[in-house]
Specification:
Low-confidence stretches: 1-18
CATH topology: Rossmann fold
Largest sheet: 5 strands, parallel
Mean pLDDT: 84
Distance between the termini: 24 Å
CATH class: Alpha Beta
Strand order of the largest sheet: 3-2-1-4-5
Structural class: alpha/beta
CATH architecture: 3-Layer(aba) Sandwich
Radius of gyration: 15 Å
CATH superfamily: 5'-nuclease
Strand content: 5-15%
């Protein structure tokens, strides 16, 4: 099922959208783009019609790559910390206990199990640029291009 068909069918049933718009689980590979102030992805992440959720594991991954993120985006550690605090205001983070019953899903990359499990638990699509995740059939995967199309983002 294409992403537009998926969005229309779920909107009609009221299962996948909030009052504000599209609900999605967000992968860390998308969050990395948030730190680039000129990134189109950053603009999308702050769109009020997008309700974002991620496992707390995403924050651990960001911290793991904090030095690289700072270097790539010319950020001081304090600026990085401020950006992470802003992300915490934008994204609902869920603990492993919330979705652990789904962590046995087949996953092409063990680092993405938490994201797939949370998407399965909430019945929401996963926003990622990881092409390997498109191969699994447990949850719907949306790319940035598909998110833009669904939001009709200019």
């Amino acid at each position: 099922m294409g992403s537009e068909t998926w969005a229309r069918s779920k909107k009609r049933k009221g299962e996948r959208t909030s009052k504000n718009g599209l609900q999605v689980i967000i992968n860390t590979n998308i969050l990395f783009s948030y730190f680039n102030k000129k990134s189109a992805t950053r603009k999308i992440l702050t769109n009020p019609y997008l309700e974002l959720t991620a496992p707390f594991f995403a924050l651990e991954e960001l911290d793991k790559y904090a030095v690289r993120i700072c270097e790539k985006n010319n950020l001081l550690k304090e600026q990085y910390d401020e950006e992470v605090e802003q992300l915490k205001q934008i994204i609902h983070f869920k603990s492993l206990n919330y979705y652990k019953e789904h962590t046995d899903l087949p996953c092409p990359d063990e680092n993405d199990v938490d994201f797939l499990a949370l998407a399965k638990r909430l019945g929401q699509p996963l926003w990622t640029q990881d092409k390997k995740l498109k191969e699994q059939t447990e949850v719907n995967i949306l790319t940035t291009k598909e998110i833009i199309q669904l939001l009709k983002f200019p």
